[in-house]
Amino acid sequence: MSKDWRPYAYHILDAIERIRVIQSRGDLTQDQVLYDATLRNLQTLSEATQLLPAELKAVYPDIPWHQISGFRNILVHNYLGNIDPQTVALVTSKHLQPLELAVRNMLK
User: Fold this and answer.
1) Which residue among 7, 9, 83, 91 is buried most deeply as judged by most CB within 10 Å?
2) What is the signed CA dihedral for 93, 99, 101, 107, rounded to 10 degrees?
3) In angstroms, how far apart are the furthest CA atoms of the chain?
4) By the 8 A CB rule, do 57 and 8 touch?
């Protein structure tokens, strides 16, 4: 029996909400604490996406699932050097909304 994926989907949604709260407190490109908090939530969000069923992710080909997983590896293992705050800000502004919509639709 395979593990239930829904808790991971809810964890993704929780991490997205936390990132939004962090963003409401200031500019992560100018505040190291906000930046670090955002990185941590992106890391756990990325880990959770790896535990969603492949057949469900296939329904949403516009979501860059493989890149999300790769981003997690960069965050955790510091591959290819440091991630800069501008990149993190771009990721959060461009990719969180579509990911949230896809995960919410999966849960329906």
Assistant:
1) 9
2) -150
3) 47
4) no
